[in-house]
Design goal:
The chain is built from 5 helices and 13 strands. It is an alpha/beta fold. It has one domain: Metallo-dependent phosphatases (Purple Acid Phosphatase, chain A, domain 2), CATH 3.60.21. The strands form 2 sheets. Strands 1, 6, 7, 8, 9, 10 and 11 form a 7-stranded mixed beta sheet that branches. A 6-stranded mixed beta sheet has the order 5-4-3-2-12-13, covered by helices on one side. β10 and β11 form a beta hairpin. α2 packs parallel to α4. The longest helix is centred in the N-terminal third of the chain and has 14 residues. The radius of gyration is 19 Å and the shape is globular.
């Protein structure tokens, strides 16, 4: 198992890639939305330049004492993990990174020292793309800048399941050198670019930089403990991060969509 401090390197000659976060699937939950998940899978496979970041809570993984109810699970934890394994196999060549969520880390990992997503990644042959707490994704893409094929555009991403996006503080505020941040956990999809002031000591100038911050919500119907707790209904909207390495200057943008 590789440490979080070791970045995940991804190189491609593609000039444009689309990054789609898959998070909070909650396989085995009574409210799992099979239709939305099947539609999202088809959407990803429609184009060869669409890639996935798996950002935790892929399993419901209800255990005694957890907020989830073990008796209402539609699949056992082992069956849930089997589903994750099949997904990793299916999207082996589309997977950029895999990170645990609290339904994995606070349950299997904390209670038994078992890492279900890591095990699934090993079976699928993509264990080098797994990190437990957070992941740094280093993307090199395009055919090179200014006629130099080795000078590819670089995009750096930070992935963690439980990110912060408060008015005065966000996860982006503790990071330097990143182009985008991908978070999850609260089941609330959003696209919230955060601005930073960057000082260039070489040119003695200030510049303003946007860091894209995306959360893709969940793949669940409204119900279960969310409804019992009086939580509000969440949007089904999704977002993708689009990286362009086809010009002299790199570009990045986000785009919302439904499936």
């Amino acid at each position: 198992m590789l440490p979080e401090t070791k970045p995940i390197l991804f190189k491609t000659d593609l000039d444009v890639i689309e990054i789609i976060e898959v998070c909070d699937l909650h396989f085995g939950n009574e409210c799992f939305n099979y239709s939305k998940w099947n539609n999202l899978q088809r959407y990803i496979l429609e184009k060869p330049n669409r890639f996935i970041i798996w950002n935790g809570d892929l399993m419901e993984n209800a255990v005694p004492g957890s907020k989830s109810d073990p008796l209402t699970q539609t699949l056992s934890p082992q069956e849930q993990q089997d589903m994750v394994t099949e997904c990793f196999k299916k999207f082996k060549d589309r997977t950029l990174a895999i990170v645990d969520g609290n339904h994995e880390s606070n349950r299997s990992i904390r209670l038994a020292g078992l890492y279900p997503l890591y095990t699934s990644a090993c079976i699928a042959g993509i264990s080098e793309r797994y990190r437990s707490a957070y992941a740094v994704l280093d993307i090199s893409m395009g055919h090179g800048r200014q006629g130099f094929p080795n000078r590819k555009h670089k995009f750096i991403g930070y992935i963690c399941h439980r990110g912060k996006n408060m008015k005065q503080f966000a996860t982006t505020d503790m990071l330097e050198g990143f182009d985008f941040v991908v978070v999850a956990h609260d089941h609330e999809p959003y696209d919230h670019s955060r601005g930073k002031i960057v000082y260039d000591s070489r040119t003695k100038t200030l510049m303003y930089k946007d860091i894209e911050m995306v959360d893709n919500g969940s793949c669940m119907f409204y119900g279960g403990y969310a409804a019992r707790d009086g939580s509000r209904v969440k949007s089904d909207k999704l977002y993708k991060i689009i990286c362009y390495g086809d010009g002299r200057e790199k570009r990045i943008e986000t785009l919302g969509f439904h499936v």
